Backbone:
């Protein structure tokens, strides 16, 4: 069959797939690998709902071609929890009700994880600008910012 | 006998009467009598009408009784978003 | 179902707490399944071909080449959708909107559809469909469409609500009027008058999840539809009707929904997906692209509103008058009517008149958006009120307090109010620290009030008690923002058990009786009423079973804190029976224990809110930054206060976006120019500050706990609060929403 063979690592596990040259990583993750945590909100890199971490870099998976994942390390929301232990960000999002409909939540968790990896003690402003690439229509962002602040504290203290 | 106030457009369809007296014990009967007395109201009623009884709006409870002396007001049947 | 008389003294054990929601873990781990997260074996990909013209006759559609493309399993046009609406004009409009029958009425109007084995083939097939259009003059602006010489969109539309009936068709489908007293006489008495015209541009609900569904129709006529929707029962009804299917044969399952705000209360793609599936004999997955969502779902109205308000020297508003023109898309609608009802609803007025006009335009069919029509009317009125307060020489809050509606006031839309919260929200705002915070250069503060009706509706709930004593709560109102948590709290409260023992799910249309949509702020209000009723029915049975187990009369059994308690002198010594124990014995006492409720929840109770906003304007760029924002709103009774706060904050954020930047931009060619999130820019995290909330609780006498709907009211004040703040910051009355940088610069230059 026509297609590019790709070998990559997803959430620590080896993954292999075939994809068309013009297929996005978003479509590969959802349609070929069944990782539905990644969401398509716009398909043009404007909403951040498809955010993943690729080689320690936060990206919109709709702007990455499937073939570009060759040899890379991909992290998605499905890899955040360790068994039944939620990541502090996930736990704090729940405690602060930082989600209403929840469609933007996987993208925000990825963005927040990436933000805190690079800046473990961000100010409110740094959090707001760090998350400005992710759209939320339900919450007004207030509780999201509080959840990230709280999780950052836990992650620094733990 | 209850006194019913019709909002502007409904009043126009009822020949300009904004207050009408109707013999009805509940909302169902009220609607029936209104279309009998004012055939011009029927298309508006098909679209949907809500009834406010002493300020509380009822959209679907047609069995709701109309207490004597209550303020009864007809409004368009609205929906939200 | 009326307020428990003991409500005011009642201390709740579950209601009012803030536990984690039952669907929470799924949503933070990516396990939750939304509209596009479901697949069926053998499914095809559906795509829709859309008109690139704002207004055109469809002369011919040739689908032959598309049908012959290998991999294409079905092609659809309006010819495949016979008119089964049986004279129902509203349903006919929905049918035509789902697939154009004679004319393309807006840029994005569906004209054909295909189902193919994969997305690439479907996309290719669309390109092979040949449509012959004959262009017609178009009109997209509400004021231009209102003018008598405007291009006519529908020659069967004669303005209703006008006497005598007009002899020429027009773009105005209806005129409505509300009010009382004598406005002209009142205005003549006024010492101060403000008269202005305001304009608001069209916006979209902006939900992040595009419309998505999977439809599967069997050759025997049974069908399944998985779809993100605010009302799966309504979707079932509409789809069944449009396609000539038995509603009972169509099972609709509501997926998790990624935002709706009123925009997922109407069908667009779903009947098409079902029709494609029926034709192809295979499941069809149809997902809208973001571009399609903006061009071809249901944005809100653009408006043009004239307001005139007069006050006496002592600060009493003596007359209020408004004429409201709202766009409804290319079909008849009833949007200005709602604006006309809500415009002056916050105030006690001796003389008031509002007239609404529904105006057709070549834009997508207007759909509901969170307190539909109210925000725009509030913008116009609250702006004028602010200006009038200044003229009278009164503080804006005090001016409103003086004129606020109260219990016993005749509302501007007609009925007399019961106990309401406008006064309390104003008093709370007056005393709020936000009002006293100092302002700096180029900064302005604005406040505004808002009103919304809230609704009840048909609601069914099943409460089943398992053999282990845990409770399954099946509800029919889609959970858009955490209501499963609230309803579990209510069930736990009534039964006297722990929240952790209750699991709430949204049942599909085959598993529960009809439920109206989750709209009108009715989700928690109606389903909580039904849950309370179902729980009380279950408790009746639990008492009967306990009576059996004890062999005593049921009259001697009460239910307290999750236990059956034997009362009376002869058996007061019997140890209590827990719900768990009674459930475990259910098999031998009469079978599984459940409580059901099928009700019409009515008496939702109106709600009021007052917002405060601080804005800083950059005089060089015209950019406006929100520095501080406060929401004060009456919730009646907050079942889960965190989710109530969330509704307040979310509505405020949408209103802020609407006020400062969101608008549909149409070119002279009648095409939408900004059909994406880059150029239709909703607020991002860095645009907003923390949003302070204050929940007031003035109980709704028509709900056992006093609950009022909360979801919508918070979008009503922000347009005005922000506009008043900007007007104060720049020293010019802002009359056009959104107040994007070019408009603010123009105001500064004026």
Residues:
């Amino acid at each position: 069959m026509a297609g590019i063979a790709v070998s990559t690592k997803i959430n620590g596990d080896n993954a292999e797939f075939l994809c068309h040259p013009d297929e996005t990583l978003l479509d590969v993750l959802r349609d070929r690998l069944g990782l539905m945590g990644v969401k398509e909100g716009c398909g043009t890199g404007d909403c951040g709902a498809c955010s993943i971490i690729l080689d320690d870099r936060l990206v919109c998976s709709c702007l990455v071609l499937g073939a570009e994942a060759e040899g890379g390390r991909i992290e998605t929301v499905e890899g955040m929890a360790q068994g039944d232990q939620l990541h502090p960000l996930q736990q704090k999002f729940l405690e602060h009700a930082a989600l209403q409909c929840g469609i933007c939540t996987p993208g925000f968790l990825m963005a927040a994880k990436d933000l805190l990896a690079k800046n473990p003690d961000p100010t409110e402003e740094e959090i707001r600008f760090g998350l400005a690439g992710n759209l939320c229509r339900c919450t007004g962002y207030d509780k999201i910012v509080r959840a990230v602040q709280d999780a950052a504290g836990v992650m620094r203290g733990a | 006998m209850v006194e019913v106030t019709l909002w502007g457009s409904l009043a126009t369809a009822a020949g300009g009467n904004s207050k009408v007296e109707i013999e009805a014990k509940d909302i169902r009967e009220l609607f029936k009598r209104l279309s009998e007395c004012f055939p011009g109201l029927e298309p508006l009623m098909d679209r949907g009408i809500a009834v406010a009884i002493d300020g509380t709006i009822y959209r679907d409870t047609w069995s709701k009784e109309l207490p004597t002396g209550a303020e009864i007001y007809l409004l368009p049947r609205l929906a939200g978003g | 179902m009326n307020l428990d008389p003991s409500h005011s003294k009642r201390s709740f054990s579950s209601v009012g707490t803030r536990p984690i929601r039952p669907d929470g873990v799924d949503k933070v781990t990516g396990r939750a399944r939304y509209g596009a997260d479901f697949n069926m074996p053998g499914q095809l990909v559906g795509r829709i071909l859309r008109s690139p013209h704002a207004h055109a006759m469809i002369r011919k559609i040739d689908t032959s080449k598309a049908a012959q493309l290998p991999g294409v399993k079905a092609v659809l046009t309006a010819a495949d959708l016979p008119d089964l609406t049986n004279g129902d004009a509203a349903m006919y409009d929905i049918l035509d909107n789902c697939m154009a029958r004679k004319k393309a009425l807006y840029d994005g109007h569906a004209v054909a559809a295909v189902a193919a084995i994969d997305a690439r083939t479907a996309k290719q097939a669309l390109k092979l469909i040949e449509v012959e259009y004959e262009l017609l003059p178009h009109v997209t602006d509400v004021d231009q469409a209102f003018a008598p010489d405007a291009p006519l969109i529908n020659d069967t539309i004669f303005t209703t609500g006008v006497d005598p009936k007009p002899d020429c068709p027009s773009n105005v489908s209806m005129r409505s009027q509300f009010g009382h007293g004598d406005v002209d006489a009142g205005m003549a008495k006024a010492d101060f008058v403000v008269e202005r015209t305001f304009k608001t541009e069209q916006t979209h609900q902006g939900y992040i999840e595009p419309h998505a569904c999977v439809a599967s129709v069997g050759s025997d006529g049974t069908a399944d539809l998985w779809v993100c929707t605010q009302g799966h029962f309504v979707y079932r009804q509409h789809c069944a009707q449009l396609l000539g299917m038995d509603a009972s044969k169509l099972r609709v399952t509501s997926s998790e929904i990624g935002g709706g705000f009123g925009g997922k209360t109407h069908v667009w793609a779903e009947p098409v997906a079902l029709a494609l599936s029926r034709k192809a004999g295979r499941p069809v997955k149809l997902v809208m692209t973001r571009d399609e969502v903006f061009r071809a779902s249901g944005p809100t109205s653009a408006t043009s509103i004239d307001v005139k308000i007069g006050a006496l020297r002592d600060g009493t508003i003596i007359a209020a008058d408004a004429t409201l023109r709202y766009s409804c898309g290319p079909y008849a609608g009833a949007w200005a009517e709602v604006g006309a009802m809500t415009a002056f609803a916050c105030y006690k007025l001796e003389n008031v008149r509002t007239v609404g006009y529904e105006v057709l335009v070549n834009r997508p069919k207007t759909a509901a958006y969170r307190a539909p029509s109210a925000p725009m009317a509030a913008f116009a009125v609250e702006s004028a009120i602010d200006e009038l307060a200044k003229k009278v020489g009164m503080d804006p809050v005090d001016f409103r307090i003086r004129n606020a509606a109260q219990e016993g006031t005749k509302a501007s839309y007609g009925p007399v109010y019961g106990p309401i919260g406008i006064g309390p929200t104003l008093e709370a705002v007056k005393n709020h620290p936000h009002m006293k915070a100092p302002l700096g250069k180029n900064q302005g503060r604005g406040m505004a009030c808002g009103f919304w009706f809230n609704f009840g509706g048909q609601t069914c709930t099943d409460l089943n008690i398992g053999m282990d004593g845990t409770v399954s709560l099946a509800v029919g109102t889609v959970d858009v923002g955490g209501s499963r948590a609230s309803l579990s709290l209510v069930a736990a409260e009534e039964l006297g058990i722990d929240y952790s023992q209750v699991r709430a799910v949204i049942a599909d249309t085959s598993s529960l009786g009809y439920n109206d949509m989750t709209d009108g702020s009715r989700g928690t209000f109606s389903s909580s009423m039904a849950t309370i009723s179902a729980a009380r029915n279950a408790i009746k049975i639990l008492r009967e079973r306990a009576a059996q187990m004890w062999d005593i009369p049921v009259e001697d059994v009460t239910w307290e804190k999750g236990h059956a308690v034997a009362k009376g002198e002869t058996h007061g010594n019997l140890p209590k029976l827990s719900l768990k124990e009674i459930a475990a014995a259910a098999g031998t006492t009469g079978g599984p224990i459940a409580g059901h409720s099928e009700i019409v929840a009515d008496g939702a109770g109106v709600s009021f809110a007052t917002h405060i906003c601080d804005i800083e304007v950059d005089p060089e760029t015209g950019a406006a930054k929100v520095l501080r924002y406060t929401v004060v709103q009456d919730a009646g009774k907050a079942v889960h206060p965190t989710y109530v706060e969330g509704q307040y904050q979310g509505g405020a954020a949408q209103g802020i976006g609407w006020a400062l930047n969101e608008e549909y931009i149409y070119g002279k060619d009648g095409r939408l120019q900004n059909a994406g999130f880059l150029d239709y820019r909703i607020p991002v995290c860095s645009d907003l500050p923390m949003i302070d909330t204050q929940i007031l609780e003035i109980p709704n006498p028509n709900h056992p706990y006093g609950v009022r709907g909360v979801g919508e009211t918070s979008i009503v004040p922000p347009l005005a609060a922000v506009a008043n703040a900007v007007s104060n910051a720049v020293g010019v009355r802002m009359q056009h929403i959104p107040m994007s940088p070019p408009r603010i610069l123009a105001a500064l230059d004026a």
